[in-house]
Amino acid sequence: MKPKVNKKILIISSAFMLLISLPMMLFTFNMVYSASPYDKSGESLQSIGLLIGAGIYIFSMLVAIAGLSFANKPYKYNWCRNLGLILMLITLLDAILLRAYFIITMLPLLILNIIYITGTRNNAEIDSNRNL
Predict the structure, then answer these.
(1) Which pLDDT tens digit goes with each residue over 16-72?
(2) How far is Cα 88 from Cα 82, in angstroms, rounded to an integer?
(3) Where are the transmembrane segments (predicted)?
């Protein structure tokens, strides 16, 4: 992809991530109250997973702000990629705790994070892939 396309993808995904993070964080907090009465004795991890998921949405605000501020600086895309990969790792680890609630609460963030990471690809990586 061309550098301008990467910049546009990064800006668009960061903006959407920033827009959905606050309402989805509140939605995830409200899901804790609906999940708590139905937790069985061995399955109380879903409420904890929802609380961690709300924290992940707070961290996604940091990732989105970094993406928006570093969009004009391609030499800092590695910072954005590392933050995006950390966010992806935490989100996938939280899937173990959330189980069925993962699709409802964390899937929009996961999709936007994948788009965000593809927007942070460096031109050097793209050129090396073309030479192969």
Answers:
(1) 999 999 999 999 988 887 766 665 555 577 888 889 999 999 999 999 999 999 888
(2) 10
(3) 9-33, 45-71, 83-104
